[in-house]
Design goal:
With 422 residues, the chain is of the alpha+beta class. The chain has two domains: 212 residues, no CATH class; 179 residues, no CATH class. The chain has 15 helices and twelve strands. The radius of gyration is 32 Å and the shape is elongated.
Length: 422
């Protein structure tokens, strides 16, 4: 059994060490404030930069997923690796309604897809034919927002295609087109549609190769019945799509495969990782520079207090206790720096997260934002990682910076230390 009196004495000793360490800091007020302010400024810079990174990543993800992919997709297990018409989900509407009722899901849109030949007069071009539920797709897709002419699928026989594909076919609003393809059983699939809308995303690979029609029209033309190829799902938070995917997969039928945006858009995840890695190098350099200043400050502390430490050793204080007291001083300086850095970060980022920054007004950014299909305003994002990562790494650097000069205390001889001139 533990001795309560011993525990109480240990607690009193620890509290005394903290009080002494705190008082020692203010023997050199200017040095303490400069060290803490340096840490605080570094934490502020890193945290603000990370918040802008997090906000830009959210914008990248939302922009990329809202166009076609969605946050999650439900598919036939073989469709992702081999997108053939025959690999479809039966009872697509029933599955759509089932997923719509799941918590955490904002919208679900069923889609049918097939590569086919699109003809108008004597011109023919290959395209990806996408059958969509107009109302459901408008709830989660940003493609209708890129309407450049006409309307978005106003009728059952309407077609919505890219401006580049329309130019290649030589068609305009009101013209008729013919789609010829193959059914899942190998038969001939055909449908006629009227061009009622054109879109221009600025992405040539989409504008010249995608054609949308009503899902009922495509299901009839390609003999799909009630089957669909994708259920495109929008969640409340794309960052937690992987967690929701695991929940939905456990409740889904055996012949349904769930994919999150990381799997659907691997190039987007790679771009985020590369950007994060390059930024981390800059953060590390900044933190290392500040840690070096901490090491310098504590080296000066140890040299200035050599006689004090010698006296403490002479009266029986253990070297490890002195090292521990210096560690407590380092933690106190770090805590002051964290308060300074986090308060400044919150004061700057919190208003900007509400009003955003207009990147379109920055010289050179308007064209870049258009190429990346980023929004006109960038909203920095505060989260747990932003507020804890840089302070924790700074704590490690601070303790290391205090420990290196403190090791000199372990080699001190009390008599020599007491003879040291101040």
């Amino acid at each position: 059994m533990t001795d309560p009196r011993r525990d109480a004495r240990a607690g009193d000793t620890g509290a005394m060490f903290v009080r002494v360490a705190w008082r020692n800091l203010w023997r050199r007020r200017l040095r303490t404030w400069m060290s803490a302010s340096g840490m605080g400024f570094a934490i502020f810079l890193v945290s603000v930069s990370m918040s802008f990174q997090a906000g830009s990543y959210d914008a990248w993800i939302e922009t990329a997923t809202s166009l076609m992919a969605g946050h999650l997709q439900a598919q036939h297990p073989a469709y992702f690796d081999n997108p053939e018409v025959r690999y479809a989900l039966t009872e697509g509407i029933a599955l759509t309604r089932r997923f719509e009722n799941e918590p955490g899901i904002v919208a679900v849109s069923p889609r049918t897809e097939a590569f086919a030949l699109v003809s108008a007069g004597e011109r023919s071009f290959g395209a990806l034919i996408v059958g969509v539920d107009r109302e459901r797709d408008m709830a989660l897709s940003s493609l209708p927002d890129h309407l450049s002419a006409g309307e978005y699928l106003p009728g059952a026989d309407s077609a919505f295609l890219g401006t580049a594909l329309a130019a290649n076919l030589g068609v305009d609003i009101g013209d008729e087109i013919v789609v010829l393809g193959a059914t899942g059983e190998g038969g001939v699939a055909a449908l006629m549609a009227r061009v009622d809308g054109l879109f221009d995303t600025g992405r040539p690979e989409l504008d010249r190769s995608v054609l949308q029609v009503g899902i009922a029209s495509m299901q009839a033309g390609f003999d799909l019945g009630d089957a669909v190829h994708r259920l495109v799902i929008e969640t409340r938070d794309a960052r937690h799509a992987s967690d929701l995917k695991a929940i939905l997969q456990a409740a889904a039928p055996m012949d349904v495969r769930l994919l999150d945006w990381n799997e659907l858009l691997p190039e987007l995840e790679q771009a985020i990782q590369i950007d994060r890695a390059s930024a981390s190098m800059m953060y590390w350099l900044l933190l290392i520079v500040v840690a070096m200043s901490v090491i310098n400050a504590f080296i000066m502390t140890v040299f200035e207090r050599t006689r004090e430490f010698g006296m403490l050793l002479a009266i029986g204080m253990r070297p490890n206790a002195i090292v521990g007291m210096l560690g407590i001083e380092a933690v106190c300086v770090w805590a002051i720096g964290v308060v300074i850095g986090i308060v400044l970060c919150v004061a700057v980022v919190l208003p900007l997260s509400a009003i955003g920054i207009d990147v379109s007004g920055i010289e050179g950014m308007e064209q870049l934002a258009a190429q990346l299909m980023m929004p006109d305003r960038l909203y920095p994002s505060l989260n747990v990682n932003v507020l804890t990562e840089s302070p924790l790494w700074m704590l490690a650097g601070t303790l290391l910076g205090a420990l290196i000069p403190a090791l000199r205390v372990r080699r001190m001889q009390p008599v020599e230390a007491l003879r040291e001139e101040e």
